[in-house]
Design goal:
The chain is an alpha+beta fold and 91 residues long. The protein is built from 3 helices and 2 strands.
Length: 91
């Protein structure tokens, strides 16, 4: 996946926010850690940083069902209708 020119249509920041909230990335636990890694490796503009998911989250849906009573589910994915409603509210 690559970034999009207009930030509000770019899926990368949203996915990174979810990954950091779940502590799902191997060796990275915050945006600051990602920034430090990018600065240390001196990735040229236009190049990609390859991130690895932790084994513990590989089977977990990225966008998960959430309820008031139980919070976020570890196994049940968010349905399409809910995703579309929330996505429209964001953009």
């Amino acid at each position: 996946m690559t970034e999009y020119d207009k930030l509000r249509f770019d899926p990368i920041p949203y996915l990174l926010a979810l990954a950091f909230a779940d502590n799902a990335l191997f060796g990275l636990n915050s945006p600051a850690a990602l920034w430090t890694r990018q600065q240390q490796t001196r990735i040229p503009k236009g190049q990609s940083i390859h991130l690895l998911w932790k084994e513990s989250v590989l089977e977990q849906p990225i966008l998960r069902n959430v309820t008031m009573a139980n919070g976020a589910s570890d196994t049940k994915a968010m349905n399409r209708e809910t995703f579309c409603r929330l996505f429209r509210a964001i953009i």
